[in-house]
Amino acid sequence: MGAVAHVQPRQSWRPTRVTALRAAEFALGTFVLLVLIEAVLRFSLFDPRFWQRFDAFFEPGLYGSLRSILLVIPISLVVGFLTGWGRISRHRVVSWPTTVYVDFFRGVPPLILVIFAFLFGASFIPGPIHERFLSGMSLQSISVLIATIVIALHSGAYQAEIFRAGFQSVPKGQLEAAQALGMRSWQAMRFVVLPQTFRLSLPPLGNELAVLIKDTSLLAIIAGGAELVGGSQNFVGTLASQGLPLEWTFAVWTAVAIVYFVMTFTMTRVLLLLERRFHTPGLEAISI
Questions:
Q1: Structural domain contains residue 9
Q2: What are the counts of helices (DSSP H) followed by strands (DSSP E) for the chain?
Q3: What CATH number is associated with residue 90?
Q4: Is-contact 144 118, C-beta < 8 A?
Q5: pLDDT value at residue 14
Q6: 7 in a structural domain
Q7: What is the tally of structural domains in the chain?
Q8: What is the pLDDT of residue 4?
């Protein structure tokens, strides 16, 4: 009788005990740090007077930032994946435009892109699209929307290189073996290339998405109170004029920092769970 292949069970993607312990340690350390800072600066982040005033700026800004993040992440992922795929194409009509796109957006600071998109982006929208989809929006809202999409395109250029490296990390021999087994090109791409590309791209993709979440704070220069950082700036500007404690300035930016940390930490933890879910024994040393 032939030997029976040993199949390892698929790893669970539930958080491990070590992950839970690290999260608890971090929460405890953050709490102790806040207590020490409050004792030194003599203010309380949990002062109800602070939140009664700050909430009018904090809540709308938080919702605005969340809407921006929920928009830029899927757009950047789709653009990055398709552009990375186009970068490895043997057809110049596909690879050349995608290369130009990647080089341009990686070479221009995102702050400059946001400013130009806000000032001039609305003028490039075709009339039929404006009348059908954007007729109920103000000019400023349209400009902020375009600037948000430009942030996604900027991140998509970096993600394109991540996915390109993931595609190129799959040995060519595996494609040849798949074709020798009778698979068509699209079948080899779906069942051989894409799963490995996805797994290899997850670690650097987590870093890029964390940066993307923080890059949405650039919208503060154009969105004002409709974004978390902009709304917080507006509140800080009212402290002296209304005779409020200046120590609240630190409380404002501490609250903003905690919010962004929670969002980036959550994103990286989710991708880490996916990485463990699709972990393949024997390929731990492969990285991009």
A1: no
A2: 12, 0
A3: 1.10.3720.10
A4: yes
A5: 53
A6: no
A7: 1
A8: 44
Degrees to nearest 5, angle at CA 181 with 176 and 182: 100
Q: Please report whether residue 15 resides in a domain.
A: no
The answer to whether the CB of 288 falls within 8 A of the CB of 161 is: no
Determine the pLDDT at residue 287.
Answer: 41
- Reading the block at residue 92, the tokens are 């110049």
Share of the chain above pLDDT 70, in %: 90
| Distance set, CA 204 to CA 85, 108, 117, 286 (Å) | 17, 21, 27, 13
Cα separation of 89 and 109, whole Å? 27
196: which 2 tokens?
């490995």
How many Å apart are CA 51 and CA 45, to the nearest integer? 8
CB 188 within 8 A of CB 196: no
Amino acid present at 145: L
128-159: string of b/e by CB count within 10 Å (b at 16+)? eeeeeebeeeeeeebbbbbbbbbbbbbbbbbb
Low-confidence ranges of the chain (pLDDT < 70): 1-16, 18-19, 41, 279-288
Residue identified by tokens 């070590």 is 18
